[in-house]
Specification:
Butyryl-Coa Dehydrogenase, subunit A, domain 1; Butyryl-CoA Dehydrogenase, subunit A, domain 2; four-stranded mixed sheet; 12 helices; globular
C-alpha cells in the first residue's frame, strides 16, 4: 500500500441536501423562538430526550435507513448536512447520537432481520438510547487486548468483564458489547463477538466517572455473570473485530470530531469588535481555515460511506486531525480572549462560560473514539509505513 490508497475526493452536495440544510435551520430557529434551545453554556453533546423526540418527529433519526425500519432512505451526505447544522447550533442530540451514528448501522449491516425489526424503528422514533461497550480500564484504545469474555452457556452467553468511558450508559436502555468468545493461536484480532445487552440485566453495575467539569457523561460498567440470550449475538460469532472496525469508521469520521468546540469559535466571532487586533484576525483566520479543511475531509468520508465502503484509515485521519483542532481551538480562543481583554469588557459572559467549560472538557477529545497514538498506527499501516 502507498499514500495513493487514500480516497478523499470532495463530493458535491445535491440540491436535496441543501434543501434539507434549510429545513434544519428553520427547525433550529423555531426551537429558539419557543425557548426550547437556550444559548449553550457547555460544549459537547447535550442529552435531552424531549429534543430527541422532536428531531425524530421530523424523520431525522435513521435518515439513511430503509423505510421498513423507520428510516427515510436518504443519502449519507444529506445526513451529514443535517448533523452539521444541529451540531453547529449546539442542539443537544446526545440521547440518540450513538444509536443513530453507529449502533443502528451495525445492526443494519450485520444484525438479523429480527434484530433490525425490533431495534431500528425504536431508535428512529427517538425511544431507544444505546451506549458503546468497547474500551476497558487496562486496554484503552488497544481493543485487541480487551479482557471481557462471553462464555457459551445453555440458551445464550454469560459475560464477565469491565467497560470504561461508556458515554451515557446510565441513560441507555441497551449497550453493544465487544467480548472475547474464543482464543485463536497466533491472532490478536480473531475470536471476538458483539452482543446487545439490556442495561437492566442482573449482574450489571454502572459507576459514574465525573469529569473535571463536574459532569457525569462517562461511566464504568461492570459485568458479573451477565446472561444474554442467543439472539443477542450480532452477526457471526468470532467476526466481532471486522464488525467493530466498520463501526469505528462511523464513530471517528463524523462532524462531531471537529464541531464540538465550534460554538466557542462562533461566540468569539460574535463578541469581537471593529478594533480587533491584526494578530487576532490572523489567529482566527488560521483556525477557520483548519476547520474548513476538516469539513472537506469529513465530507469525503461521508461520501465513501454513501458508496458502501469502510473508510477506516480515512476516518482515523479525520479523528486524529479533529482532536488536534478541537484542542487548538480552545487554546487559540483563550489567548484571544486574554489579549483582546474581552471578558473585562462585559461583552463576553457567555463566551467566558463556554471557555471555562471547554478548558475542563478538552482532555476528553483524546479519549473518545481512540487515542491519537492508536489512530496514527492505523494510518501508518494503511499507507504502508508499518
Amino acid at each position: 500500500m502507498t499514500a495513493a490508497n487514500l480516497h478523499l475526493a470532495l463530493p458535491k452536495l445535491t440540491p436535496e441536501a441543501e434543501t434539507l440544510r434549510q429545513d434544519v435551520r428553520t427547525f433550529i430557529a423555531e426551537e429558539r423562538a419557543f425557548g426550547r434551545l437556550p444559548p449553550p453554556r457547555r460544549i459537547g453533546l447535550g442529552f435531552d430526550k424531549a429534543m430527541t423526540k422532536r428531531i425524530a418527529q421530523k424523520g431525522w433519526i435513521g435518515l439513511t435507513w430503509p423505510r421498513q425500519y423507520g428510516g427515510q432512505e436518504r443519502s449519507a451526505l444529506e445526513r451529514y448536512v443535517m448533523n452539521e447544522e444541529l451540531l453547529a447550533a449546539a442542539v443537544p442530540v446526545g440521547a440518540h447520537w450513538i444509536a443513530d451514528r453507529q449502533s443502528g448501522p451495525v445492526l443494519l449491516k450485520f444484525g438479523t432481520d429480527k434484530q433490525r425489526q425490533f431495534y431500528l424503528p425504536l431508535i428512529a422514533s427517538g425511544d431507544l438510547t444505546f451506549s458503546i461497550g468497547m474500551s476497558e480500564p487496562e486496554s484503552g484504545s488497544d481493543l485487541a487486548s480487551l479482557r471481557t469474555r462471553a462464555e457459551k452457556v445453555v440458551g445464550g452467553w454469560r459475560i464477565n468483564g469491565r467497560k470504561i468511558w461508556t458515554t451515557n450508559a446510565h441513560h441507555a436502555q441497551y449497550m453493544i458489547v465487544l467480548a472475547r468468545t474464543s482464543t485463536v493461536e497466533g491472532s490478536r484480532h480473531e475470536g471476538f463477538s458483539q452482543f446487545i445487552v439490556d442495561m437492566t440485566t442482573p449482574g450489571l453495575t454502572i459507576s459514574p466517572i465525573v469529569s473535571m467539569a463536574l459532569e457525569h457523561d462517562f461511566n464504568e460498567v461492570l459485568f458479573e455473570d451477565v446472561f444474554v440470550p442467543e439472539e443477542a449475538l450480532i452477526g457471526r460469532e468470532g467476526n466481532g473485530w471486522n464488525q467493530v472496525s466498520a463501526e469505528l469508521a462511523y464513530e471517528r469520521s463524523g462532524p462531531e470530531r471537529w464541531l464540538s468546540s465550534f460554538r466557542l469559535i462562533s461566540e468569539l466571532v460574535d463578541v469581537l469588535g471593529p478594533d480587533v487586533r491584526p494578530g487576532t484576525l490572523e489567529d482566527l483566520g488560521r483556525l477557520i481555515s483548519h476547520l474548513l479543511s476538516l469539513r472537506q475531509l469529513s465530507m469525503s468520508v461521508a461520501s465513501m460511506i454513501q458508496q458502501g465502503k469502510s473508510p477506516n484509515m480515512e476516518a482515523s485521519i479525520v479523528k486524529d486531525l479533529g482532536t488536534k483542532f478541537e484542542q487548538e481551538a480552545v487554546r487559540v480562543v483563550r489567548n484571544i480572549v486574554s489579549a483582546d481583554d474581552l471578558v473585562s469588557s462585559g461583552r463576553a459572559e457567555r463566551l467566558k462560560a463556554l471557555l471555562i467549560h471547554a478548558q475542563q472538557y478538552a482532555p476528553a477529545f483524546t479519549i473518545r473514539g481512540g487515542t491519537n497514538e492508536i489512530l496514527r498506527g492505523i494510518i501508518a499501516r494503511g499507507i504502508g509505513l508499518r
